[in-house]
């Protein structure tokens, strides 16, 4: 085929149209690359520890943890130990404090999610909206403030340093790890003994002295009244509570007069009668029961007529409330129904046979051998 014939068969303008399409595709690719590389690109993520490369647990001399509800606790370093200054210098558990500070210094600048002021409140890392705020005091008088915010997913938490604009995601620290109560940093065990080794218990209070001893048959009470049986389970519960004492919150190292140790008293639920130990129930044993009461003692459920309230003789009887007079005006017309009562549903009519029901073969009424009727002559 010659060149002239090819030109005749090729539509006019086809080559020029393909050229313009190619140029347009190149321009679109260049515009897309420009947008991706220059427009709305977040800043480059920082790397390294969030508190700084030179900050270690030994550089932190004090810290305060504040919760979203306003509760706060302060710990301060006292030599090699940590104490609670607001609780009279009560000693803290060094292992708990050290573990918490290691989690703080291990935070990294990774997982950047936001850098704007509006995002701080939404992620709860703002100065007035947070889950936890931790104020650190460093050697030399330096100060650092760390905010612990919301949890976007399970096991991850938003954190931000006050002087840093970036909000990061961490997986090693949560708001529940930063306790705002003093009991979260101290050893809560006050007394721990083996209950099986306790053989004698003596209780002294305003009601007297109560001595309980444990023998081969269990616990016994020296002052048990006649005809009574000791509740040994109650004694066992008291011994178990005394051999495993736990504190809720430390108050200090010195005894104050407001604590009431000079004049101890029983709690309201442990008030006992004279001659009866606290928090113990003297059960009735197998002694024969008391005889049934006779006479007026049987009428305990019903008060005596002399105790009933009577009307004074000089007081007239209360007048009864008069009956309500009949309603004035015309009689009320009988109620009319807006709609007549619907008739009772009667028996439903038989349903017509469905055209889709399977056909049954009808029995033929014709005789197999029809006979011709005979005419009578």
Description:
The structure is a single chain. This protein has 377 residues and is an alpha+beta fold. The chain contains five helices and 18 strands. The protein has helices at residues 3-9, 14-38, 94-105, 117-122, 232-242; strands at 60-67, 72-78, 81-84, 90-91, 112-114, 125-126, 129-130, 132-138, 143-148, 157-161, 167-170, 189-192, 200-205, 208-215, 218-221, 228-230, 244-246, 282-284. The strands form five sheets. The protein has a nine-stranded antiparallel β-sheet with strand order 4-3-2-1-8-9-10-11-5, covered by helices on one side. A three-stranded antiparallel β-sheet has the order 13-14-15, with helices on one face. A two-stranded antiparallel ribbon has the order 6-7. It is flat. Residues 267-308 and 367-371 have low confidence and may be disordered.
Q: Structural class from helices and strands?
A: alpha+beta
Radius of gyration (Å)? 47 Å
Overall residue-averaged pLDDT value: 76
- From the spread of the alpha carbons, the general shape counts as flat
Number of strands: 18
In whole angstroms, the N-to-C terminal distance is 109 Å
- Listing every helix as H and every strand as E from the N terminus to the C terminus, the arrangement reads HHEEEEHEHEEEEEEEEEEEHEE
Main sheet?
Answer: 9 strands, antiparallel
Q: Unreliable runs, pLDDT <50, ≥5 residues? A: 267-308, 367-371
Proportion of residues in β-strands: 15-25%
Give the number of helices: 5
- Spatial order of the strands forming the largest sheet: 4-3-2-1-8-9-10-11-5
């Amino acid at each position: 085929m010659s060149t002239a014939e090819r030109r005749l068969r090729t539509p006019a303008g086809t080559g020029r149209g393909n050229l313009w399409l190619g140029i347009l595709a190149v321009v679109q690719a260049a515009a897309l690359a420009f947008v991706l590389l220059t427009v709305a690109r977040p800043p480059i993520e920082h790397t390294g520890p969030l508190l700084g490369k030179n900050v270690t647990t030994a550089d932190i001399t004090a810290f305060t943890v504040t919760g979203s509800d306003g509760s706060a606790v302060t710990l301060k370093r006292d030599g090699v130990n940590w104490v609670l200054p607001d609780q009279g210098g009560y000693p803290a558990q060094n292992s708990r404090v050290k573990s918490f500070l290691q989690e703080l210094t291990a935070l990294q600048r990774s997982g950047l999610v936001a850098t704007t002021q509006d995002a701080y409140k939404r992620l709860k890392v703002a100065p007035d909206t947070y889950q936890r705020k931790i104020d650190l005091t460093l050697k030399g008088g330096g100060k650092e403030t760390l905010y612990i915010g919301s949890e976007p997913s399970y096991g991850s938490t938003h954190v931000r340093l006050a002087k840093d604009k970036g909000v990061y995601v961490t997986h090693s620290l949560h708001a529940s790890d930063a306790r705002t109560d003093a009991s979260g940093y101290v050893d809560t065990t006050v007394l721990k003994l083996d209950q099986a080794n306790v053989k004698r218990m003596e209780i002294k209070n305003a009601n007297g002295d109560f001595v309980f001893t444990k023998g081969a048959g269990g616990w016994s009470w020296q002052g048990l009244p006649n005809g009574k049986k000791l509740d040994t389970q109650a004694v066992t519960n008291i011994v178990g509570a005394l051999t495993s004492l736990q504190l809720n919150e430390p108050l200090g190292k010195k005894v104050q007069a407001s604590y009431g140790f000079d004049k101890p008293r029983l709690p309201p639920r442990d008030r006992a009668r004279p001659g009866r130990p606290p928090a113990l129930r003297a059960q009735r044993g197998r002694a024969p029961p008391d005889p049934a009461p006779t006479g007026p003692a049987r009428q305990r459920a019903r008060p005596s007529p002399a105790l009933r309230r009577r009307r004074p003789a000089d007081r007239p009887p209360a007048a009864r409330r008069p009956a309500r007079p009949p309603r004035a005006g015309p009689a009320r017309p009988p109620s009319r129904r807006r709609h007549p009562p619907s008739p009772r549903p009667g028996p439903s009519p038989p349903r017509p046979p469905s055209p889709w029901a399977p056909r049954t073969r009808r029995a033929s009424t014709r005789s197999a051998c029809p006979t011709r009727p005979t005419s009578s002559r």
